[in-house]
Specification:
The chain is an all-beta fold. Strands 3, 5, 8, 9 and 10 form a 5-stranded antiparallel sheet that branches. It has a 5-stranded mixed sheet with strand order 4-12-11-6-7, with no helix packed on it. A hairpin with an 8-residue loop joins strand 6 and strand 7.
């Protein structure tokens, strides 16, 4: 109050306004039999603090990453938050990310609120160069707050498998493999061996969890040198 002000000035000054100061204030003036009142509604807002759990991501195709947007210390509770997927390149409209989950609102001792919105990103090559943005709107803000995550996605690493031919790759079996004959009696090459199958040489060494080993065939009569073949296959494939 300002009792020292002349001519009936009864102003009220609130310093260091807190959430507890929110409410309705009434100024009443009485002069003889005349009573006048003026009502003032005071609303207090607190701007949210917005953070994301990562600023950038480098993922392999198929890899998963949880993206979390934390919104803290805001008031009132009325707030709008969404995750957007912004494609690479200008002129493309952002998409709203589906299947986003929301934590419950938490109220702190000072009266402000906090909560989180999050989703599980499964990386695809379409996500390479995209930006995922958490966009927050609140009555305390003149413009929305945006926090973004840039995403880079690379293709799954390819594995080069060596296909070896000759006894250098596989131990010969003690007996000759069965041979195929045509009607005229002419011999053909024995069937190839994959993974130690009994159609060719036996005891082929395995090479890793995908169970593709070597392609082992009988060496020719004219050459005993091993022939090396390369086959490129995605590491995701199941052999």
């Amino acid at each position: 109050m300002f009792p020292q002000e002349p001519r009936g000035n009864a102003s009220l000054l609130l310093r260091r306004v807190e959430l507890g100061d929110e409410g309705t204030y009434i100024c009443a003036v009485q002069a003889a039999a005349l009573v006048l009142e003026q009502t003032v509604l005071l609303q207090v807002t607190e701007k949210p603090t917005v953070t994301v759990n990562v600023n950038s991501l480098s993922l392999v195709e198929g890899e998963q990453q949880k993206l979390v947007c934390d919104i803290r210390n805001y008031y009132p509770a009325d707030i709008h938050v969404q995750w957007l997927r912004e494609p690479r390149g200008a002129g493309q409209l952002p998409d709203t990310v589906p299947n986003v989950l929301t934590s419950s609102h938490r109220r702190s001792s000072n009266g402000t609120y906090s909560f989180s919105r999050f989703f599980l990103l499964t990386a695809t090559l379409r996500d390479d160069g995209c930006t995922y943005t958490c966009r927050v709107e609140h009555p305390s803000l003149q413009a929305p707050i945006r926090r973004s995550v840039t995403v880079a996605v690379r293709e799954a690493t390819s594995t080069t498998w060596l296909l070896l031919r000759s006894s250098a790759a596989c131990a010969r079996s003690s007996s000759r493999p069965a041979e195929r004959r045509e009607a005229g009696g002419r011999q053909q090459e024995p069937l190839p061996v994959i993974g130690g199958a009994a159609t060719g040489l036996s005891d082929c060494p395995e090479s890793g969890p995908n169970r593709l080993v070597a392609l082992c065939r009988e060496g020719s009569e004219h050459s005993q040198q091993p022939d090396v073949y390369a086959m490129t296959q995605s590491s995701k494939a199941q052999m």
